[in-house]
Amino acid sequence: MMNRRSLLTGGARALGIAALAQLFGEDFAHAEGLSGIPQFKPTAKRVIYLFQSGAPSQMDLFDYKPGLANLRSTELPASIRMGQRLTGMTATQTSFPVAPSMFKFAQYGQQGAWVSELMPHTAKVVDDLCFIKSMNTEQINHDPAVTFCQTGFQLAGRPSIGAWLAYGLGSENKDLPAFVVMISQGSGNPNDQPLYDRLWGSGFLPTRYQGVKFRAGADPVLFLSNPPGVDGAMRRRFLDDLASLNEMNGAQFHDPEVATRVAQYEMAYRMQTSVPELTDLSKESDKTFEMYGPEARRPGTFAANCLLARRLAERGVRFIQLFHRGWDQHNNLPAQIRGQSKDTDQASAALVTDLKQRGLLDDTLVVWGGEFGRTVYCQGKLTADDYGRDHHPRCFTVWMAGGGVKPGMTLGETDDFSYNIVRDPVDIHDLHATILRTLGIDHTKLTYKFQGRHFRLTDVKGKIVNQVLKTA
Amino acid sequence: MKYWLFIPLLCAPALFAADTVEFNRDIRPILSDHCYTCHGPDQSNRKTKLRFDTEAGAKQNLGGRFAIVPGDPAHSEMLQRISAGNSPTRMPPAYAGAAALSDHDIDLIRRWIAQGAVWQKHWSLIPPKRPELPQVSDPTWVRNPIDNFVLARLDKEGLKPSPEAGKAALLRRVTFDLTGLPPTPAELDAFLADNSPGAYEKVVDRLLASPRYGEKMAFRWLDAARYADTNGYQTDAERYMWRWRDWVIDAFNKNMPFDEFTIEQIAGDLLPNATLDQKIASGFNRNHRGNGEGGIIPEEYAVEYVVDRVGTTSTVWMGLTVGCARCHDHKYDPIKQKEFYQLYAYFDNIPERGNAEKYGNSAPVIKAPTRDQQQHLDTLDADIRGDEAAFASAEKKNAREERNWEKKIAPDAQWFPSRSLVGPFSGAQTVGDVAEFGFTDKFTLAARINATAPNGAILGRGKDAAESTGYTLLLANGHLQLNLVQRWLDDALRVESVDTVPLNGWHHVAATYDGSKFASGVHLYIDGVESKLKINLDQLNQEFRTKEPLRIGGGAGPENRFQGAIGEVRIYKADLPAATVAVLATETPLHGLAAIPAKNRTAAQRDKLHLAWLDAYSPEPVRNSWHALEQAHEDRDKFYDSIQTVMVMQERPDVRETHLLIRGSYDRPGEKVERGVPAILPPLPAGVPNNRLGLAKWFVDPGNPLTARVTVNRFWQSYFGTGIVKTVDDFGSQGEWPSNPELLDWLATEFIRTGWNVKQMQKTIVMSATYRQSSRASEELVARDPENRLLARGPRLRLPAEMIRDQALAVSGLLVEKIGGPSVKPYQPAGLWKELSGGEDYQQDKGPAEYRRSLYTFWKRAAPPPMMMNFDSAGREMCTVRETRTNTPLQALDLMNDRTFVEASRMLAARMMREGGADPIGYGFRLVTSRQPTDKEMSVLTRGYAYYLDRFTKDEASAAKLIAEGDAPVDASLNKPALAAYTNIASLMLNLDEAVTKQ
Fold first, then answer.
1. At what angle are helices B920-929 and B976-991 packed, to 10 degrees?
2. In chain A, whose CA is at the least distance from the CA of B99?
3. Is the ipTM of this complex over 0.90?
């Protein structure tokens, strides 16, 4: 019976060397990546990006501003606002009363990081984390801001960061895609900002580099399961027959695409085994579940996705991105952020700890953060136990861990209102440049020529934030 | 993939190597890519006077030094600098992160200088001249001029064309290429049996005449036009542009000349006495995304829409990356930033808002009845005319009766309009679940009030809190105020009367709303007189419908309690006209009105009396004919309201000033600019207006060097996979040199010569010997020319996504052919929409809508159909003209396991069993591939069938499960295990490389 091996030996002469190389090399992305990449010795081999969609409130979680308690309900001084453009949601508001966080903060770890009571588990691992409190962006609305975070440009159409990395670095695992995406719904704002498939799309890069969405349920990857009534043995027979038929016809054309197609069907077959094995959490220990929290047993939750992220990292997937919706808390922020923090705190911290225990944190970069911050002034009515916050692009907090990033430090500082950055600003391009640097990539060299221009993730900007890198 | 990506690049120099170095072909691309960033057209970036984008700039005297001395490489400093290895003087400079030029490029520049450094204007900006037909080695091979150019090139390369493809292969190829579907067995038999010399041409003519041709041609145009069924951006809700899509199909089918097509797509609305169709056509430039996210800054997005139009129009008609000049002068091409905004000025004069509608179409829109709808509308109008005539005659006959009636009206008789009435109610109360209105509903709220305080809610539905979601009519500082609120401040409408309602006395107040979402759709009346409006907030974008009860004298919070009395609350499910509101306000009973001498009555008094007569007191013939007329109007309005709009282009009456935007930023206007085309291109033709219409005519002026070339190049790409200019979207300096410049120019001039005849151009291409070649190739030829740029063989390409699905539907007999109409929702795995937004999920259609051609599949930008995306469809976020093809495991999973293909396999299997006679497998194989399987293939298929049959016979339950996939009913007359086994064989056929490939 014709199988992949006989296709290779039998068809080797006919298919040519290039095609043969494809058979081995071409899976989801070329295994080796672009020539000349990485340019530097990488400190991270892969990235897990825990994207907090909707924009978490920095001053209720990490950016502690004790002085605000005394300024409660007072107008935000114009000297602080400095003409910052407001979203249309509060532009017509006539008053901008300061709304201090109602959550208690304490200092943790050797670095003495301030963390709010909403994040008790994160607080325990602060010495593994590097906080950047001086993140900022140009975008004030969700769609452009998330698009900016994902692609380095505010309008849809450019490749996402994961697609760039799949293109540049290729895959470490021939049975799994280089770029995997998982989505979860938070318990915060249920009508939170929607996501879009294009956020993990390949833009003008070939579509092979787009993120593959893993979903909860019977088909973790779309169309992964055989149709009802067709078992693995039938599928194997099918693929063997398909390969021999394709070879018979393909021999007349010497078209390397034929051999590639055969290889892709084999890859699909391997995925049918490797993906269910990957997403089957039944062999994880009770201890692990304890660490990630009870939600980790519920497929599709952020906690379950964090655990899956570790399993993907173990298998060498390059770029693993979780999107957790629900942080867009314009009103009822205190109630919503409680739930939202509960969703994410334990599992995020557990992921860092778990990776560390398994020796994976050294070469896995974990990033936690959203698309912008939230305003210190109240949106809507400020009451004793309720407030809301509008979008705020000028500062927000992101943390990173592992992958060559310095642990136990905090970079950047905001003013007393968590409104403006007073030290070490880091913008999205800088963050991208820095993530690429940990992977050994010079962000100015990872380019793709499209419509006459050599595009890159960092557009024409991006400074590596050397202060947070061990190697710098 | 590495190798596959790079082989073509490595081969490129070999493909185009020649003894004479040619500036445009060999040198400009090097200068553009390596030098123009600092020594190019962008003056703000030029560090020195030296520039390589103009001849004068490159050869100028720089204080006794010369970058380029023609004929003298040794004294050309540029050559020394680029070959300076790792020295700090090397250009491009290492300190700027630039890599050194390759030895190959340096050698080319050296030879070019040695040969005299002859400069050329960029090739694509020189109008195409019709080239002489070159002599070829084998004139008998030539079928039309295309072949002269292709064979001349092959002669130069020492290559021979391939023999003509077999008839079956050719038929399958040309049928896909012209209609997007495979040939039927009957079509195949007919062609195989036709041995006449004109057999192939007959087929081509048949295909070009098929309505499927227009559908096929439309698909790529939709990609270019970024057509979709949703608005894009945040909520990405539905919009309705399918009338525009259907216009495109129709235009291709009618073979509208491309110049006319161009003019109507860009400026159909500006044509004299523009027809509905011409206006619809102009929707091309409204297919861009629209942002309805709460809180956006409208000006910012208004700019983005115009930028999108400029970029899309430039890519589609000029093949230039004009968008690069938005923020600065173009880095590579001679387009100044100012010129970008001069083009921009053609597209920014439409009455639109930056904050687009969240749901539905954004203005400007027009009603776009289909032919059927227009017919129905005409019928309804005729009904109205009939009813009017009947009423007029009845009314006239009874005029005397009316005057008599006025004399004997009972003293307590009162009348108010009752059609569409909710109520009346009197006094403050919580009424309950009536008068439920949403943001697209028309309504009227009216009451008679006696207010003792200037603030208070009169009536409304919404939580009992200020500015809560819902609608509220209230008094605010004595002014009548209507609030329509989704979310207070950013998604709300608030208007109030300039006049005040006097306190401590009875006054009538009313508000009408036309369901438009805009303040301009609200009217406020005090005592039947319309008041001027003060618009406080005009940002309603979402539904404000609520389950809260109707409250009279309540709602809007305790701070807004109404003080005084409320009577005669009348709410109508219609936006009453001013005259009717005046009647409502007229309190005097009928008897009192009749007592006023006729000539002294106000219009409202007269109307009230007359309407009362018609509605309630006239003899039956009058009453009935009046009610019939009212009903006819209502029917007509209702139907008219149900007709979908389409977004179109329109000009504002006044011309908006356009400014250059510094760094492209919406909030940094620079100098004022006038409409104009880039100076490097010819000026507008004489006699055309300097507006969009003139611009459209300029595109298709025969003197325009780009439009014809760019268009035929895209056509070429659709047949051969790669354009003659590979960068179909970039004919500028950074674009690729045409693989056969003379062929491109011949096609371009031929296109113009034939009056931009689109069908004829397709025919010319598919009739050529070049196109008809077999795609079988030797290993050597594939290695030498992997992308088939030289065309020594026929095209062999994976089918585009839509054709893969359409083929499966066609060969399985599932395909439902119907042209046009609203988009449809076939199978898609559940949850794909919901998991992105938490909102509504995809609601799959049932019945024929599941099996329409993929052209009609609902395209949601945030979550496009996964099968289409797996097979490299354009995402429809922005203009896409380049075709891409990848080969991935997700495609394999999709073809094997997607319900679409599983169901199609089962239906194909049933067809094989029913129609295949003694040879079901051969029959099915031929349906899919247009040929009989070889013995070896047959043996694989037969043994495979035996295996599956054995498995399914032993396990009938599995057979039953497999054949139950999909909504199409199972043919119960067929043996289940056999049907399941054939289903797997049919699936195998649909998964064949050959099946998804045109070869």
1. 30
2. A445
3. no
